[in-house]
C-alpha cells in the first residue's frame, strides 16, 4: 500500500520506517526542509537503537521517501497518518493546532476517498473535531480513525514490530478494512488488533500512560515508606510483582518518571477531565509526588556533606532513562538546577545525552568525557540514569579518584553488600542506608 506520514518526529519517523519495513511504500512529509534533506541523504535525525539499519534498508529498497510537499505525497497515497506534536499548552491541555492545521490542508488537497489515521496522542473527541473540520473543506468521502502509538524510546523499533496490541478506533467498515491490510504482516504473526470506537481508542492511550505513571509513583511512595520502617523495596517489589494481577514490570522505584509522554499525558488527562467536570484526584497526586521524587536525593547529599556550597558533585547519567539521548523532563535537569542553586560545582557524564544538556546548562557545569573522569575529586556521586555502563564500575578506581566514597544512587544499581564491602557510603531508593 502507499502510505503518507505527516510529521517525522519520534513517532512519525519510527512508524514510517517500520511501515516501510512491513512492505508498504511510505512517503514521510515534514515542513522542516533541513531535516527532510538530511533524511533524503540517509541520515537519521534522532538517536534510537536499530532505527538506522531499518531506515537505510528501506531507503535502499525504494520504499521510504521524504518530502516537504504534502500535495505530492497525497498524489500517490490516500492513506494519511498524522504523527504531529500535541505539546502541552500553558494550562496542561494538549495543543491541537498542528493536527487541525494539517487536517485542514488535507481537506483542501483531497481528490478521492482518503483515510486519515491519527497516531498523535490526542484528547478524547479529537477524531470528531478532525472529521468536522475536513467535512467543511471537501466533497470527497473520507474516514478518520484513531491508532494510538505505544512506542518506548530506546525500544521503539521492537515495540512497533512486536507490539502487545494494535488499537484502532473508528466507525466505518471501509476504514477498518484498510487498517486490517496495513497491519496484516503483524496480525498474521499473531499480534492482536483491538477495534473500538474513536473516543475509547483515544482514551486508551491516555489511560495506559497515566496508569503506568501511577504504578511507578505508587512504588516510589512505597520505597520512601520502606526507608522509614526499615523494609527493602527490592524485596517488596519482587514479592508484589509475582502476583500476575500486579505484574513485575514498571515497579522499579527511582527518581520519578520523565520523558516526552508520561508527564505530558498525565497533565493532559487531568485537564480533559476538568473540562467535563471530572476530577482525576489520583493523577493530581501522581504529578505532585513525581515532581518531588526527582530531587529526593538532594537533601540526602546536603545532609551527608553538611551543605553543598563549593562541593564537587559528579552526576552519572543525564538522559531521562537509558538508551536514549532524550532529556525532556529528566530528573538530571532538576538535580543540576538545585545543586547549582545551592552553590555546588557539577561535573556530569552521559555518553549520548550530554550535547542536549549543553544546550540548556551551557558552561555552568562541566561535561566529562568518560565516567571515571567525571568522579575525579568528587565529594559525592549522584546516579541519575540507569545506563548499562554504570552497572558494574571498577569500584577501586572510584575509591582512588573520589574525594569521598559516597554514592547517591537514584536507580538502585548496586548490591548493598558489595558497596558495604568496598567501604562506600551508599544511599539508594527504598533500601537500607550503607554507612562506611
Ligand atoms: C512511555 C510508554 O512506555 C510508551 O508506551 C508511550 O508510548 C510513551 O511513553 P517512554 O517515555 O519512552 O515510553 O519510556 P518508559 O520506558 O515507559 O519510561 C518512562 C519513565 O518511567 C522513565 O522516566 C523511566 O525511568 C520511568 N520508569 C519506568 C520508572 O521509574 N520505573 C519503572 O519501573 C519503569
TrEMBL record:
It comes from Apibacter adventoris. NAD(+) binds at residues 30, 35, 86, 121, 153, 264, 328. Residues 314-416 form the UDP-glucose/GDP-mannose dehydrogenase C-terminal domain. InterPro entries: 6-PGluconate_DH-like_C_sf, NAD(P)-bd_dom_sf, UDP-Glc/GDP-Man, UDP-Glc/GDP-Man_DH_C, UDP-Glc/GDP-Man_DH_C_sf, UDP-Glc/GDP-Man_DH_dimer, UDP-Glc/GDP-Man_DH_N, UDPglc_DH_bac. This is UDP-glucose 6-dehydrogenase. Substrate binds at residues 150-153, 205, 250-254, 258, 321. Its EC number is 1.1.1.22. It catalyses: UDP-alpha-D-glucose + 2 NAD(+) + H2O = UDP-alpha-D-glucuronate + 2 NADH + 3 H(+). Gene3D superfamilies: Cytochrome c1, transmembrane anchor, C-terminal, NAD(P)-binding Rossmann-like Domain. The active site is at residue 261. Keywords: NAD, Oxidoreductase. It comes from the Bacteria. It holds the Pfam family UDPG_MGDP_dh_N. GO terms for biological process: polysaccharide biosynthetic process; UDP-glucuronate biosynthetic process. SUPFAM superfamilies: 6-phosphogluconate dehydrogenase C-terminal domain-like, NAD(P)-binding Rossmann-fold domains, UDP-glucose/GDP-mannose dehydrogenase C-terminal domain. Belongs to the UDP-glucose/GDP-mannose dehydrogenase family. GO terms for molecular function: NAD binding; UDP-glucose 6-dehydrogenase activity. Pathway: Nucleotide-sugar biosynthesis; UDP-alpha-D-glucuronate biosynthesis; UDP-alpha-D-glucuronate from UDP-alpha-D-glucose: step 1/1.
